Amino acid sequence: MNLTIPPSQILLYGIAIAAGLVYLPYLVVAYGRVSIGIDMNAPRAMFDRLPEYAKRATWAHQNSFEAFALFAAAALTAYVSNAASDKTSLYILAFLVARFLFSLFYVLDLPFLRSLMWAVSMVCIGSLFTASLA
Fold first, then answer.
1. In this predicted structure, what is the pLDDT of residue 1?
2. Nearest residue to 26 via CA among 71, 62, 66, 52
3. Is there a contact between 71 and 121 (Cβ–Cβ < 8 Å)?
4. Which residue from 48, 53, 67, 104 has the highest number of Cβ atoms inside 10 Å of its Cβ?
5. Which spans in 1-134 are helix H?
């Protein structure tokens, strides 16, 4: 049985997986909210009472939305321009790993590693756009 996924499908699956990764840090935020007691009357006001790790997870969650928008545009541009290749598949996979590690390093308060993973993910986005031009 051959389970090889074509590069064009990796572009599309990558977008779906990246969308899921946006919410990964929010699981940590939810845990932080439960640990301090959920205030349904003022859920946004709870931020100041969250533990530090949950505050960082909130910021990782917000940054993930910003990165996802650029990534989805880059992956779709590569898809519609028929630029899908083994190289674009590598960019997709590197982006997904970098974004997972970005969130993890943000929550763990490792700013240098977090910034490195942000840079890797931005290089992947730029590389996808560049591949679309060829």
1. 42
2. 62
3. yes
4. 67
5. 7-36, 52-80, 86-107, 111-133
**How many other CB atoms are there within 10 angstroms of residue 5's CB atom?**
10
Q: Is position 93 within any domain?
A: yes
Residues 132 and 81: beta-carbon distance below 8 Å: yes
Check: CB of residue 113 under 8 Å from CB of residue 101: yes
CATH number of the domain encompassing residue 16? 1.20.120.550
pTM of the model: 0.91
CA 9/CA 14 separation, integer angstroms: 8
- Please name the amino acid found at residue 105: F
Q: How far is CA 134 from CA 6, 71, 77, 86, 95, in A?
A: 19, 18, 12, 14, 20
- Domain range for 113: 7-133
Domains contained in the chain, number? 1
Residue 1 lies in a domain: no
- Checking if the pLDDT of 28 tops 60, the result is yes
Render 33-51 in DSSP notation, one character per residue: HHHH---TT-TGGGGGGS-
Interatomic CA distance for residues 7 and 105, integer angstroms: 29
